[in-house]
Amino acid sequence: MRTEQYTPRPAEGRLGILLPGLGAVSTTLIAGVELARRGLGRPIGSVTQMGTIRLGKRTEGRHPLIKDFVPLAGMEDIVFGAWDPFPQDAYESALNAGVLDKWEHIEPIKDFLQSIKPMPAAFDQRYVKKLEGINVKPGRSKRAWADALREDIRRFKEEKGCDRLVMVWCGSTEVFIKPGEIHQTLEAFERAIDEDHDQVAPSMLYAYAALMEGVPYANGAPNLSVDFPAMVELAQKNGVPVAGKDFKTGQTLIKTVLSPMLKARMLGLDGWFSTNILGNRDGEVLDDPESFKTKEESKLSVLEHILQPELYPELYRNFYHKVRINYYPPRGDAKEGWDNIDIRGWLDYPMQIKVDFLCRDSILAAPIVLDLALFLDLASRSSLHGIQEWLSFYLKSPMTAEGLYPEHDLFIQQMKLKNTLRWLMGEEQITHLGLEYYLDNVQELAAV
Ligand SMILES: NC(=O)c1ccc[n+]([C@@H]2O[C@H](COP(=O)([O-])OP(=O)(O)OC[C@H]3O[C@@H](n4cnc5c(N)ncnc54)[C@H](O)[C@@H]3O)[C@@H](O)[C@H]2O)c1
To answer: Residue limits of the Myo-inositol-1-phosphate synthase GAPDH-like domain (predicted)?
Structure first.
């Protein structure tokens, strides 16, 4: 049973959502929230805004909206801040991103979007090779950047009159960095900041600054950022919730729905070939092999964890898995992802599944950012800190406690999320056993 300690405190006052990166995802989120507030658009895809939760038995008919069940910050109480190495405000950046219709969704809120100007970024081109930033913090001292970011956070909170803040990394994918010695303890990591160590990427400085200021942090990209032991130690020490990494939007979302089906029905897998074309700035950044490697690692691990070849060697020991991302400018943000899946059934007969997902990257990502921000704020008000595994639902490479494998199956993740909300509010967990509808003596049976 939950103790009083975890009862969520009410969401009073303003919530500031701080976004490192004011690109396609961020501007689509910001515009969407403002359009929804003005009744000019619907927040489709957001579980916090549209989802319901079943409480009690199926016969009770209790299905409140999640936002009525748990105390979440209201859309009207949200304010936005951002950093970006490009100086364009949210209006210009939204136009550049080319996600939203200029006349229907950008011009009507032009003034609002223009009011969001990016703060100078902690940016170093060695970590995102394809970008050249001009709106950047001076010098190269990592300690000075971390201090300046902390100062930005405090100033923003003061100027906007925020009661609480959360930060969600929506910046570009940085080059691949494997966790090393300096990432193992907070002490080693802080020393590395002071020594301007190469393995301290800018995204880690944002995460560090946030946690030092007691601000919950989620990482929407596949780079490490907050996903290493030193940061988890800091999150625990300062009592701050964290989540990461890499928004689960297009192809991986489909993968984490289809592959559990194969395993549930004991169908074998010979190969899964995934390829994408996309032409936004994210696609351009991922055209650099070092940034792509970070993404590839994140996308590849999903199948191994879901299919568990060690438990089902006959079905999944040798499947071939390939993921490709191709930068193709004509498509802009309208990504197309193809999957060719070679499966095997009764008596080893081969079959195939083909998926062609014509999606819109940022349209799928924006509601995830909103939900992560609102749920992290809830976690913080509920005295939850460290890794929030119940938010894996939104992420391609979920962070977990040491020694635990990540749960990738979307519907297990959804159950974990909803059961966490039930737990926080002192409601019964739903196990889906359901025998009580059929057996009179099920309570007695449970007792023996
Ligand atoms: N859209 C999706 O479906 C999706 C899914 C999973 C992950 N992501 C990740 O989300 C991130 C954002 O995606 P996007 O489509 O908005 O990309 P984008 O290129 O449009 O925007 C990223 C922004 O981050 C800025 N940036 C880079 N380094 C920075 C730094 N050090 N500090 C502050 N800003 C910095 C860039 O200048 C750019 O404006 C990317 O890392 C992407 O891989 C997106």
So the answer is: 250-362
Q: State in Å: Cα 229 to ligand 1 middle.
A: 24
| pLDDT average, residue stretch 97-120 | 97
Last residue of a domain, one of 358, 384, 401: 358
Residues 396 and 247 sit within 8 Å (Cβ to Cβ): yes
Q: How far is the CA of 282 from the centre of ligand 1 (A)?
A: 6
Residues 243 and 259 in one domain: no
In a domain, 440, yes or no: no
* 271: containing domain: 253-358
Asked whether the predicted pLDDT for residue 406 surpasses 80, the reply is yes
**CA dist., res. 336 & res. 339, Å (int):** 10
Q: Is 115 part of any domain?
A: yes
- Length of the chain in terms of residues written: 448
Span from the CA of 232 to the centroid of ligand 1 (angstroms) = 23
Q: Is 294 in the pocket of ligand 1 (CB under 6 A)?
A: no
pLDDT band at 306 (very low <50, low <70, confident <90, very high): very high
The domain that contains 30 carries what CATH number?
3.40.50.720
Pocket test for ligand 1, best of 83, 170, 368 (most atoms within 8 A of CB): 170
390 and 301, same structural domain?
no
To test the ligand 1 pocket, which listed residue (26, 172, 174) has its Cβ within 8 A of the most ligand atoms? 172
Tell me: do 145 and 281 sit in the same domain: no
List Cβ neighbours of 441 (8 Å cut-off, separation of 6 or more).
Answer: none
Find the mean pLDDT for residues 330-349.
93
Would the CB of 221 count as within 6 Å of ligand 1?
yes
Query: In which order are the strands placed within the sheet that holds 336-344?
Result: 320-327, 268-278, 336-344, 350-358
Distance 423 CA to ligand 1 centre (A): 34
Per DSSP, which regions of 63-183 are E strands?
Answer: 78-83, 164-169
258: amino acid identity, one letter: L
